[in-house]
Specification:
20% helix; 46 strands; six-stranded antiparallel beta sheet; 18 helices; six-stranded mixed beta sheet; alpha+beta
Length: 948
Amino acid sequence: MTAPTPPTPPFRDPDLPFAERIDDLLSRLTLDERIGFLHQFGPAVERLGVAAFRTGQEALHGVAWMGPATVFPQAVGLGATWNEDLVRRVGEAVSREARAMRARDERVGLNVWSPTVNLLRHPLWGRNEEGYSEDPRLTSAIATAYTRGLRGDHPVYWRTAPVLKHWLAHNNETRRDTTSSSVRPRVLHEYDLRAFRGAVEAGTVAGVMPAYNLVNGRPNHVSPYLREHLRAWTDEELLVCSDAGAPSNLVDSEHYFDTHEEATAAALRAGVDSFTDHGTDSSTVVARIRGALDQGLLTEEDIDTAVRRQLSVRFRLGEFDPGRDPYAGERAFDTPEHRALAQEAAEQAVVLLKNDGLLPLAPEGRIAVVGLLADECKLDWYSGSLIHRSTPLEGLYERFGADRVDFAEGVDRVLLRTSAGAFLHVPPAPDAPETTRRREEGALDPALLPGRTDLPPLTTAPEGTELALVDWGNGVLTLRAPDGRYLSVADDGCLRASADQPGGWVVQETFRLEPHGDGQLLRHLGTGHPVRVTPDGVRAAEGEPEVFELVVTERGEDAVARAAAAADVIVVVAGNDPHINGRETEDRTTLRLPAQQERLLRAARTANPRTVLTLVSAYPYAVDAADLPAVLWTAHGGQAAGTALARVLAGDVSPAGRLPQTWYADDAGLPELLDYDVIGGRQTYLYFEGAPLFPFGHGLSYAAFSYGELTADVTESGVRAAFEVTNTGAVAADEVAQLYGRAVNASVPRPRRELLGHRRVTLAPGESTRLLFDLPLSAFAFWDVAAGRWRVEPGAYELLAGASSEDVRLSTTVTLEGEPGAPRPVVEHGLDTADFDEQSGTEIVDRTKESGDAVTALGGKDGELLYRRCDLGAGVREVSVEVSGTGTVEVALEGGPLLASLSPEAPTGDPYAYVTLTEPLDGAPGGVRDLRLLVRGALRVARVGFTA
């Protein structure tokens, strides 16, 4: 007799709603199984047929860390295209390749941790390459496009599940896990949150990843903003994945909690659903969660809430419905379409910054291509491995013919002589396969890939090996052997010529020469050890260092000058290596080009004035462009970078990339790296009042465009604006038309102008198009700190149309009715101190560990807060303040005498133990007044109250 077939459990029934199926699966999981799901590497539940699941697959501009894949331009380069349709197609290609790669390697995940939507507020931020723009609207538009491509267009199932990084206000690598970003409410709402909100509301993202830093004194991994803002923007379940090691940081580096059980419970209750900690070993996280449960810090309901969010993503990815998953058979990988798209994206990312007529290059004549990046196709930390490769030199060879193109790299050729008179020598390398550092093999964590030990270490010999020395700035050097391999240090401490490129979480290919007596020490920066000559080879190790003499056999500028003198035009390719001096974990220190590259540029320009400077970099530079006839910039452009650049230089493609961030003229124009107040600090194009080197939105073309007939009509829901763009040039080209707005008579500091809309259009010579922009009233709103909400101020608003934020061609004015502002009702509702209008010398801190803000003076010194238009009614007789710590708070009317000075009788000790101080006010005037608070000492001030 045949046994009856067991009924299909509801969680396996594809006809039931996801919510019902998730509830059913949750009810079948034991508590231990549910806890196990909360680690990044969730185990399988074999008794239910549920597979193991990993959150996290890097896919910033191609599938990363898992071997060969199509490599698109860096994210900042995609931002420079200003083209949402293109970026959507890139996201679609990346997600297709993720699906195809997963079909042959289950380690490839479908919960992709991309894109990065942190705003490019400060150009010295080490991770500038990962963001799209300094403007929140442009960032949001590009991010929404990329995630729409990653997600796919099926109404139920997702091709991949993208997670936005890094929530919130994260723009510094310097002490990134312990610094706090002081973010006033207006900056929070008008700037930082806006970058995330668009993609979340569009339904194209599955979650977010909190950043390492603190905001207003509270770690992002326990931020109430996850609940108050993020989850309020959508009805979808969002998965919040911690950054790597960040849960442990809550105790180990930030000392925010005393125990890991407290920290883990707080993060889970705040909304973190998946803990990326301790690599693939989940035991530590599981033990912490279990300990928090045993101590009553968590409930099973807290755990179920997080597991439900993770399961929601897994169901949407089709894991439980293989027969209905429309993407299950996806096998598109390295297709001709993807290769063509990589080239198209690289071409659209090129920005022509200056052109006095030298470009496009003439079809005849000799070209000299010089510079440290002329024959490089650099990858960054979040790149895949190249299947195809095109350098600027290779692109120009292909386009113009190798017989017309000369090359000089511009490295310094050097020998290193030891104190004994011998020279460093690179032994011949046997034909041994690279087995330990091949990115082609893929790695869930490439930081764990060890250096090569299958090659012989360096030795010394009477005849040394000539090395190519490059100074990447700040004295950070690389040394390369004649066969192209970089000197590197493996775990055994030996120096070998073993690396194809500098790279790794801790770069092992960088050195510094340090004066020492009559010679120089060679210090290996990855280990911090000096280089020594030992009987068994050359090592980086503690002990008596070797003292070297640097013998220069050829200076790079001499080779560049020779090549330049024999050419009709020079293309200087300068820029950065994405693993050196500006990357994750390391901010830049200056906008200047490294001195060695400045010398090469000078040598080329002196030898031949017909010099094109091509900057290939992950961030802006401050360069002297006055004597240069042509300047271009492109981010590291991926696998087709060289071909794309050559086609732009040749005029096959008219450049139409636009700067996604301000290029400042020098370091003096920059704010402090940790100053996150873009309003008070007058930062980004929105508020910067200086003269930039190149403005936000800037980019030239080989064509010319005219703008005309700007109209603007106020409707019930907003403003409808339109204008016409005409190609008046001789070639077909793209134009990026930009529409900005500004409040004419604002009552609070508002942007000088802010981007309201843009459109990238292709026009043939003589062709015109009329562009229409429907702008909602919310586009003109600001965050009213007095009311705690968005408000459109009544009055005049100027609309500005043009080719950049400074190249305005047309303007008109509309009048909006808006909503008049009201005075602050401080007598009825009191005053939250973080809701200031202006401040100096203060920072916002956490009122409690769970929620709320307070204000304190920076460094325990003196600070001031100004609150405009406070309604004191007919007069007030008493003031109260909620404070903790030690110090004094003084209350005064703007331009008037001191009203009160309040200090706690004794320090409160605990910064979260607040006391309320009161003081009578004799003769305090009423009416609407500006109020000033002076905070002195290590005092936290949370609220001010008044009694009528």
